[in-house]
Each structure stands twice: as C-alpha cells, then as structure tokens.
Amino acid sequence: MGIRFCVKEAPEDEEQTATAIQAWWRGTLVRRALLHVALRACVIQRWWRRSLARQRERARRAALAPSARPAWAAVRLQAWVRAWRVRGRYRRLLHAVRIIQAYWRWHNCHACGFVQGRYELTANQLGVELEIILGSQICRITDRIPFQIKN
C-alpha cells in the first residue's frame, strides 16, 4: 500500500470560493436583467420613432394636400386624354387592318383558283366536264365534242 496524503483546505478558502461563485452568479443575473431592460428600451424607442415618423408624414401630406389636388387632377386629365388618343389611333389601325385583310382575302380568292374535271371518251365523241373554282365562284363547263369520222 502506498502513502496517502490528505490535504485539508482551510475553512476560510471555502468561504472565499463560495463568495466568488455567489458574486459571479449575482453578476450574471444583473447583466441578464440589464440586457432585458436595454432590449425593452430599444423596443420602446423604435415604437416612438415610428410614431413620430407617422405623425410627420401625416403633417407633410396635410401641408401638401391643397397644392397636390390640382396637380393630381391635371395628371388624371392628361392620362384620360392620352388614353382617348391611343384608343382613336387603335381604332384607325384596326380599320386599316380590316381593309388590308379584306383586299388580301379577295385577292387570294380570285388569284388562286382550283380546276377539276373529268372526261368520257366514246367511239364518236369526247365528253368533258370541268369545274373552275375561284374563291366563292364556281364555273361549270360541260361540253360534248363530236369526232369527225371519215368513211
């Protein structure tokens, strides 16, 4: 067996250590309380500054209202006139587009035709039946052409 040393600390040192721990804990509590107070003060200050800013904005608007209303009315009137002019321009363009479309449709119908037909050949004549379609117009030609048979 080995030798054991048992060192006992003096009771004064234990009291000093306990006092130091208590002082640290109280300091922590005080710092926490001060932090909460500072945060609450910041919240109150933000609220107050926001309230003052709202009041200043209301006062500024109230001061500008008499001069702003005629300007606002002028802007509104200008917007109405501009919209009226744009609508007129749009109507004129739409009318021009319709004229161009009508001409183009008429031109397509009359320029591009469609021809179909059939024939029938017998001993002494040729039967021809033609349909010419130009747009909405249909022209039908039916004819029988006799053969000149020499005896």
Overall tally of structural domains = 2
The helix count comes to 1
In round numbers, the mean pLDDT is: 84
Overall, the morphology is: elongated
Taking pLDDT < 50 over at least 5 consecutive residues as the criterion, the unreliable ranges are: none
Order of helices and strands: HEEE
Helix proportion of residues, in percent? 55-70%
Spatial separation of the terminal alpha carbons? 159 Å
Q: Strand pairing plus helix content: what structural class? A: alpha+beta
Percent range for β-strand residues:
15-25%
* Spatial arrangement of strands, main beta sheet: 1-2-3
Q: What is the β-strand count?
A: 3
Structural Rg: 53 Å
Keywords: Repeat
Organism: Rousettus aegyptiacus (Egyptian fruit bat)
Pfam families: IQ (PF00612)
Protein name: IQ motif containing F5
